[in-house]
Write a structure and sequence with these properties.
The structure is a single chain. The strands form four sheets. A six-stranded mixed β-sheet has the order 10-7-4-5-6-16. It has helices at about 15-25, 35-40, 45-55, 120-140, 180-185, 195-205, 265-270, 270-285, 300-310, 315-340, 355-365, 370-375, 385-405, and strands at about 30-35, 60-65, 75-80, 85-90, 95-105, 105-115, 145-155, 160, 165, 190-195, 215-220, 225-230, 235, 340-345, 375-380, 425. Strand 4 (about 85-90) and strand 5 form a beta hairpin. It contains 13 helices and 16 strands. It is globular and about 75 Å long. Zinc ion binds near residues 265 and 268. Zinc ion binds near residues 258, 260 and 267.
Amino acid sequence: MNNPLSSLNIPLSKNYNKLTILDLIRFTPGGISRVEIARRMGLTRAAVTTIVNDLMETGVIREAESLSVRNGRPPVVLEINPALGYVIGIDFGATHIHLLLADLGARIHEEIESEFDIQLGPGAGLAEAERLVQHVLERSDHSINQVLAIGLGVPGPILTDAGTVIAPPIMPGWDGYPIRDTLENIWGLPVSLNNDAELGVLGEWAAGAGRGERNLAYIKVGTGIGAGLLLEGQIYRGVTGSAGEIGHLTIDENGPLCTCGNYGCLEAVAGGRAIAAQAQEAVRKKQRTQLTSILPVELITAKDVAAAARRGDLLSQQILSRAGTQIGIAIAGLVNLINPGLVIIGGGVAQTGDLLLEPMRQAVQRRSLPAATRVVRITTAMLGRRSSSIGAVTQALTIALNKVASRKEVRFPQLAHNPSLELQV
Ligand SMILES: [Zn+2]
């Protein structure tokens, strides 16, 4: 039940039990009682009571107000004390930055999205992230001193120990840049840097369509295409952090040039940029489509194609259907390889819905082995465009809770009471 992405070095001790209890409280839908914690961890009730009392005395957890129950006394369910402070989750896409401010109880208080071209490089990117953090804190009347940790996702392979990205195809200029250390210096806070698709699978596992799953793939279909893999309850990163780069599987060996330098990668034939390029090409060739109304042609985006397809534009539907089939072919390979129980499709382009999803499902059905297709469900992300930023919040919460759980005395920061969006992560 441990947070599958946490890579904190925690000694096997009382602290380990403490953090496991915090994870059970965070990730059990509907909450968990002391008795149930003892049962799940194989500990005595006395042992659990000692640790729970300790966490309650330092203000890390509290008893939740009991819900109505049919008969008898309801078991008291525990919850994280939201008043201990805040965390921030930031998701960098190829064309946007999405940011969430959440309290320690994982309730979202502020949300902001800003357009940003990641190709402008790390100087501009991190300055924009800093500006958004300032903006959100000012808007909600909070200060950086109330924030305990920040989680950050970027669309490239991560060197976790170094806190950098390594040779990221859609992030030229970011290779080897000390992203984590730069931000830790700016904010004076621990920052966790992760791949955006990894955070997507973490977010959906913690609060979305993947709750309770142990073998799960999250496919982020946006400008780029990437997969986050949860295998046997653990995030799988591979040796150098580049596992899950499904966007660079070769789909058509004679296909168009990809950002990675190869030809015919999935991303180059079915990613957001490829969808837009195919539509622009069709307009230039004077094919019949509603997209001719968008001028100049270079401005046509994947979003426009999706909107036209929904309005019944045949050419747009064909482009999306072909992209869906190609993504499905790659997913069929993944399904044959890892035999997941669930595949979640997220990212901006996936918001198109069934126009993309149906051909994808059919391709998976046709091309993966019956033993694997019989069990696998393919669904859209429950958290929509928020999967990765909620994953970033989840990761930041792990660091923040680790921090407050090792404190010896209570230190409540002064919280301004403001209405929250009350989205339980
Ligand atoms: Zn490629």
